Amino acid sequence: MAFLKQGKTNWKYILIVLILAFIVGGGILWWITRQEIPLVELPEIEKPQETGCDWKPTKDYGNCTMLLGVYYNGKKCEYISGCSAQGDVIPFQSMEECQALCEGAKEIYSIIDEINFIGETSIKEYEIGSAKFVIFPKIYKEETKEYLWGYFEAYDKDEKIYTSEPVYAISDLFAFEYQNNKHIILSEYSGGAHCCFQEYIFVLDTNNNLKIIKILPLGNAHITKTSLLVKNGKLYLVIKDDRFAYFHTAYAASYFFNQYFSIHEDNLIESNANFKQEYIEEAINCENDLNKRLLEDESQYIENWFPLLVCKVVNYIAAGETEKAWGEFEAYFAKVVELDPQTVKEEVIEMLGQERF
User: With contact defined as beta carbons under 8 Å apart, do 204 and 129 qualify?
Assistant: First the structure.
C-alpha cells in the first residue's frame, strides 16, 4: 500500500502502520518485563585477613611444659606452654612468625633447612656451602642379632673435622643464617620417652670454614626453630633448662625455665641479664596462678601448685630479685606436711648453683 496515493496523503495506510507499531512495540515491552534480568555482579570485596595479633589466651592450659604455640601479649610475642590447647587455635607456631607480623621485627636471620632423620635406615648426606655432614643410622645386624649404633661425620672442604661418639639416633638437622654465617645444629636423641637430647652446633663462616662451636647436653630440652628469638636487633637462642625435672613432682608437671644465649660467629654467650623483664613477668604470672590454685584447690595436690612455686622462685632469682623470690615461701607449705620448706629452699639453691650448660 503506497504512502501517497495520486499526490494525496493515504491516511488509511498511516493508521494501519501506527496500529501495527503499537501492537508490536507493546508486545516487546510486555515480553521484556516477563524476563529475569540478571543483576550486575559487583566484584567481591575481600575482608582484611586476621593476623592473629589480637588473639589472647582465655583458658588455663594446665601446668605442663609442652610448647603449645606463640601469641602476642600486646607488647611482645611469648610462648604458651601447657598440657593441652583445649580446642583453642593458638595463632602462631613459631616465635619468628609472631614477631614478623606483630612486633614488626626486622628479619635479621633466615631459616635454611629443617630435616628429620627419625626412622631413616640408610646413610644420608647433607651439603651446605663447602661443608658436608654424613649421618649413619643405627642398624640391626641379622647375622649377629644386635644393633650397631649410629654416628655422624662433619667435613670441611672434603676434610673430615669431626666424628661423633656412637649415638642411638641423629634425630634432626636445623640450619639458619645470621650475620652472613650459617649455623648448623644436629640433634642426638637417646631413644627415651622424652629424654635425652644433645645438640652439636657448627658454624660455616663467611670464608666457608666449618667448625664446631658447642656441644650442649640438654637432657629433656631440644633446639628447634622456635628456640630463636629476636630482641633489640640481636638474635638469641632460648634453651629450656630442665634441672628441676622430677623435682618433688612428676615429669609432666615439672617446670623448665628459660636461659638465653646471644649468637655470635664462633660462640654462644649466656645473656640472661638482657632478659630481666621477661623473668619478672614469668615470675608474676606463676605467682598469680599459684595463689589462685591454692585458694581454689582444697586437696592441695603437690602437682597442682609446687611447679608454680618453683617457677616463681627461679625466675625472680634469675632477675636478681632474691627477696621477692623467697617472700612468703614457707607460707605455701602450711597445709603440706610431707615437704619441709627449709629443705626445699636448700635444694633449690644447690641446684641453681650447678653448672648446666
Answer: yes
- CA distance linking residue 240 with residue 148, whole number of Å: 31
What's the mean per-residue pLDDT of the chain? Answer: 83
- The per-residue pLDDT for range 73-123, each reduced to its tens digit, is 877 888 888 888 888 888 888 887 787 778 765 578 999 999 999 888 899
The phi, psi pair for 193, rounded to 5°, reads -60, -40
Q: What is the DSSP string of 206-261?
A: TTS-EEEEEEEEEET----GGGEEEETTEEEEEEEE-TTTTSSS-GGG---EEEEE
For the chain, state the CA radius of gyration. Answer: 35
Helix, strand, coil shares of the chain as percentages rounded to 5? 30, 35, 40
Looking at the DSSP bridge assignments, the partners of residue 167 are 150
| DSSP-assigned letter for residue 100 | I
Residue 221 φ then ψ, to 5°: -95, 165
CA-to-CA distance for 332 and 339, rounded, in angstroms?
Answer: 11
Q: Which residues of 27-42 are buried (b: 16+ CB within 10 A; e: fewer)?
A: eeeeeeeeeeeeeeee
Residue with the bigger pLDDT between 264 and 44: it is 264
- Among 88, 24, 70, residue whose Cα is nearest residue 229: 70
Q: Which one, of 172, 167, 194, lies nearest residue 185 by Cα?
A: 172
Cell of 33: 518485563
For residue 343, what are the contacts with CB-CB under 8 A and spacing of at least 6?
none
Q: Which pLDDT tens digit goes with each residue over 264-315?
A: 888 999 999 999 999 999 999 999 998 888 766 655 678 888 999 999 999 9
Cβ atoms of 237 and 260 within 8 Å: the answer is yes
